[in-house]
Design brief:
Layout: H1 14-27, H2 31-39, H3 50-76, H4 81-99
Helix pairs in contact: 1-2, 3-4
């Protein structure tokens, strides 16, 4: 037995059909999934762009570097000036990357 045994015919205007196609394209869901989510009042979130995913990865990598510096500072029980300068440089890179919209 199918999980969804009921079929319904749906008639749409041109504007409604265009909106359905747009939502399907931007969310990465097929039209049936878009309609099901709308029926259940579930949020329809746009799929992240490739640039956004790249930016998240870059920021994550910079954050990992910053975390490694903090870990070394905790092990040594002191912070060297070079470590602080490296941490500042990483934070500046993150800020520049975010302000540039993920473009270096």
């Amino acid at each position: 037995m199918k999980a969804r045994p009921y079929k319904k015919l749906l008639r749409l205007s041109e504007a409604e059909h265009s909106r359905l196609l747009y939502l399907s394209k931007t969310t990465g869901l097929n039209q049936e999934q878009v309609l099901r989510q709308a029926l259940m009042n579930a949020p329809l979130l746009e799929r992240p762009t490739a640039d956004y995913i790249k930016m998240v990865r870059q920021i994550s990598a910079l954050g990992n570097n910053l975390n490694q510096l903090a870990h070394l500072a905790n092990i040594n029980a002191k912070v060297e000036n070079a470590d602080l300068l490296a941490a500042r440089k990483i934070m500046e890179q993150i800020w520049i990357y975010i302000k540039g919209g993920g473009k270096t």
